[in-house]
Design brief:
The structure is a single chain. The protein is mainly α. Among the domains are: 36 residues; 31 residues, no CATH class. Helices cover 73% and strands 0% of the residues. It has four helices and no strands.
């Protein structure tokens, strides 16, 4: 009695194990059918893959850029006159620093010479 029950439990466990092992291999090897628009299908060649990645990146950057400039314009419009003037001056200073010119030209020419050059 105990042997037959043990045998039936082992047989059921073996059947379940084999079913699970064969089902996962078949599912892993099955390929998803292509969509109608073709957008979800993976690229076939390396060139297509690189091109699609660059296109996606450019579209994402363009969307972020337009959103950034719109938000910046709205923020600028909300400020009062003195704050807008200060923002413009700081933008000019930032531009000058990005070019490597921290000191204005008249201070470089007419200012005190740098003793440590």
């Amino acid at each position: 009695m105990i042997k037959s029950r043990l045998f039936s439990v082992l047989a059921a466990a073996l059947a379940i194990t084999l079913t699970l092992l064969t089902a996962t291999n078949a599912d892993a090897q099955r390929r998803r059918p292509p969509r109608d628009d073709g957008g979800g299908q993976t690229p076939r060649t390396v060139e297509e893959s690189i091109r699609s990645a660059e296109e996606k990146k450019a579209a994402r950057e363009a969307e972020l850029r337009t959103g950034w400039f719109d938000a910046q314009d709205n923020h600028f419009k909300k400020q009062d006159k003195a704050t807008r003037k200060r923002m413009r001056q700081n933008a000019r200073r930032q531009k000058r620093v990005r070019q490597g010119r921290q000191v204005p030209w008249w201070r470089r020419i007419f200012g005190r010479p740098n003793r440590y050059r």
